[in-house]
Amino acid sequence: MKGDKKYILMFLLPAAAVMSIFLYYPFFKSVYFSFYRTTGFFDKKFVGLDNYKRLFSDQMLGDSTLHTLEMMVYVLVFQVGIALLLAVLVDHIKGGKGFFRTVFFFPVVISGTAISLLFVLFYNYQFGLLNHILDSLGFEKVLWLDDSKALKAVSVPTVWHYVGFYFVLFLTAMSKIPSDFYEAAKLEGITSAKKTFLLTIPLILSDIKVVVTLAITGTLKVFEFVWVISRGQSGTEVIGTYMYKKAMVDQNFGYGSTIAIYIVVFGVVLSLIANRLLKREEITY
Amino acid sequence: MKKSLLVSALLLLTLTVSACGGNNGNGGNNGGNKATPTPSASAEATAAPTPTPAADPVSLRVFSTFGGTDPAAAAFQALLDDFTKANPNVKITNDAMSANDDSFRTKVNTDMNSGNEPDLLFYFTGADADGFVKAGKVVPLNDLLDADAAWKGGFSPSALESVRQADGNIYGVPLTGYYEGLFVNKALFQKYNVELPTDYDKLKTAVQTFAKNGVIPMAEPFDQSHYLIEHSILAAAGPDGQKKGLLNGIDPNWEKGLAAVKELGDLGAFPKDASTIDLSMASNYFSQGLAAMIIEGSWSIGGWADDVKNNTTVLPFPAIPGGAGSGNDVVGGFGSGFYLSKATYDNAAKKDTAIKLMKFLTSPDAIQKIATANGGTPAADVKIDGLPQVALDGFSMVAKSASINSPIDSKVSPETFTTLRANIQKIVKGQTTPAKALEEAQKIEVANKK
Amino acid sequence: MQQTINSHVQTGPLPARRSRRFKPGSFFTYLILSVWALTTIYPMFWIINNSFKLSNDVMNHSFTLALDPVMTNYTAAFDKINVGKSYMNSIIMSGSTVLLVLFLGGLAAYVLARFPFKGKRLIFSVLYASLLIPAFATVVPVYELLIKWKLVNTYLGLILPQTAGNLTFAILVMAGYMATIPKELEEAAFMDGCNRWTMFIRMFLPMSKPAFASTSIFVFLWSYNDLFSALIFVNKDTVRPIVSLLNEISSQYGTDFGLMATAVALTVIPVLIVYLFISRFIEKGLTEGAIKG
């Protein structure tokens, strides 16, 4: 269409401006920091690629990357899976739609810190809910956060927290499927299960893609749950907490920034892979 | 051509931004921050007073940790109110943030580094303050102290001594201090007929007895093992060995300290969930009477349940055999103080008022009020009433001690200390050795200080 | 719990949105949904229940009913922070963030969804990449900018960084939704002589209501719960948002779990009430969005 170029620029510029100033420029400043050794902010020494060399020989970073990937598997399978299942089910029922939609969203409203606190009191060895139950049933108390279970234990609230979030996104997506699609399906006499797999899911595939990307990037930024529940001990250190420890606790901004860049690169690679796997033509109705 | 329009627009934007935002605080690649802020750089949106003779309205910003739920928050605000009542021309902004926030340090450092210095800053002394002290952001107070005998005489000499920076100057004047020690629940010791841990063997016996009886011997978390590390190393290496830090090699006695942690761990000293609890949960175990001992600081007394508090006393961590510790060395001191920023000192309109306020806030009377509120060691020779017996025990422990030491984390860089903390769980579980953990920490220390 | 099994097949002449057959399977459907609903309701109840207990009781009996509620925590919380003022601050800052994000993001999403132009892929890649930028990596440079522009401890000092941080998500979600709006409508509107601007205002805004609704909820929540930025950019008591209460409560003097629960309750309840209130409208938005043409 003629004159579109003007509009493209005009419509994109405001958002681009805000993001450049408050997101990209600060991030590039972090990139700049990554070539320095910093203590606080006063002593900056140019150290070239030292931080990057350290990155590749950093055992802790390797471990936290693996933990993050394991958590990502749980998130993709359970968080996105449960959200999709719930959305399909709610889409199918007649009564109580609004009720479930409202209630499923509750956890998203609570901040991660608060949820973590809740789970601290679930898992606590001395007087947590789980051991309280075991104890009253005459079983031995279990250490829920030992090496073999800790990462799974931390993943439970992580997954639970955001199911409602993706659920609402899926539901929004399903709402835009024109009803004549379903009308046609009904005439064909297709069962609901078939309808779900043949119609609904393919039709919202582009949204599933967005959600998967959000889930991947979200997992890379997981922080509060690990920080509050397990302090990154017992094999639960994830990239987010490791970076926080380096940048905020140790005040080593140089290396902290280097880890931030690593997170971004790592995430871009993962998103590209995910998008490649889910590649399909977008459907416009 | 056309396609790159947008990209170049984006680039252009980024460039303009970095051009107008890139020349303060990151002076090219020489690393030094030479861009001096304008003298009246007050971040307050209030109209900056023009430099004219005194009694003009002055607004000062005080940044401290006396906020939120800090027990001294109300007392501190009352002091500021007293000051403004006596000096109606002064407006004080009480900026406060909790010190246990990691972002607190970030905020202070950024403020100090970007021309947003508070006029008075209450902050840690020692390694934490090195950055802005070296950068000349705060004023050495020696001359001011020497010029005002009444003010200087108000402090206990030892308190003033303990806030000296490495360069021999005093930048932060103290208010209240703290001590740390091995707090023991006497009632539990009586119940199981165990002797108090006055030496290492008795400590081991106590640990074994409690462990056998299902009481947590020592409520120590692995991740936040600050106090455990501080005390075991001090008890093994002694004051001199501890002061060495890690920069110039590893004192062999440090290893003995961590080996003792491992030994105690093998005897079942630590809670089963030591790897996942934090300090407040550990403190809670002690407060609930689930644990017999805890290494903690004087500030935690106020938070314990009354029946435990009234049955608690505090001892120095016993000397570890084969080391250089005396068994009577305690960790403590005055780890924080009031700083006067250079920008304020150079601002004629504010200088005198700010100094006056600082003297007021660190007068014996003010120190007494704050110490009464938070149970800390007063930096002046004043009487504090209404303290529980355990706090008095603590003061007498400090008074009788062979040496008072600032903790290890003021001797090594923060990252080094975190590395040690991260290894405590592995040491106790036998996944690494004390020697290896110290080597790893030393590497980090060298990298940080080179 | 809602166990009304509706086995009534709707075959009216009215343009029902979607008519379905109901099977015994729907019992299990409701069972699954109800179980999940339990997991989401109970924690809310737990928090509110425990906010009426003393810390020791939270520690030791956090799962019993607070039969004799104590108000100590609430009085303590109101002493620590000016709750009313903080709510106001939260509403002003988070509300403005939402409006700004919707406006800037809506325009950008419209362009990215409906215009073919070169470099679009690149922009999308950049957007996906910026989802990954952790807050810790930008906080210090942003703070320095705010100091320079004298925006620390002002509303704008939180609104601008949060807007930048949330735009990415908003653009992706809204663009995803707008991409599915039928092309014919656009062409028809163009024939009617609408220019791009009026087309956006008159057509795309109303059509994209569901996407705007869900985006605004998420952005509001993120902004509202964002403690990290609030601590650094707006920590003065006159401008700090309610989430700072959480932080005020967890101080270096041990954790008071009763007080913590209260802080969480005070943070969560207003949002919950608002959410309950507006969810009906959102639902309306969702169904409206579904009826096309």
Largest sheet of chain C: none
Low-confidence stretches of chain C: 1-22, 289-293
CATH domain fold name of the largest domain in chain B: D-Maltodextrin-Binding Protein, domain 2
Number of domains in the coordinates of chain B?
2
How many structurally independent domains of chain C?
Answer: 2
**How would you classify the quaternary structure?**
heterotrimer
Shape of chain C: globular
**In whole angstroms, how far apart are the ends of chain C?**
37 Å
**Per CATH, what is the topology of the largest domain in chain C?**
MetI-like fold
Nearest-angstrom radius of gyration of chain C?
23 Å
- Overall CATH architecture of the largest domain in chain C: Orthogonal Bundle
- The beta-strand count of chain B equals 12
Biased composition (Gly residues) (chain B): 22-31
Region (Disordered) (chain B): 22-54
Keywords (chain B): Signal, Transport
Signal peptide (chain B): 1-19
What does this structure look like?
The complex is a heterotrimer of chains A (285), B (450) and C (293). By secondary structure, chain A is mostly helical. In chain A, 74% of the residues lie in helices and 3% in strands. Chain A has 14 helices and 2 strands, in the order H-E-E-H-H-H-H-H-H-H-H-H-H-H-H-H. In chain A, strands 1-2 form a two-stranded antiparallel sheet. Chain B is α/β, with parallel strands linked by helices. Chain B has 2 domains: 58-177 and 334-389, 3-Layer(aba) Sandwich (D-Maltodextrin-Binding Protein, domain 2), CATH 3.40.190; 178-332 and 392-449, 3-Layer(aba) Sandwich (D-Maltodextrin-Binding Protein, domain 2), CATH 3.40.190.10. Chain B has 19 helices and 12 strands. In chain B, strand 1, helix 2 and strand 2 form a beta-alpha-beta unit. The relative contact order of chain B is 0.15. In chain C, helix 3 (72-80) packs across helix 13. Chains in contact: A-B, A-C, B-C. At the A-C interface, helix 1, helix 3, helix 4, helix 5 and helix 6 of A face helix 1, helix 2, helix 4, helix 5 and helix 6 of C. Chain B: Keywords: Signal, Transport.
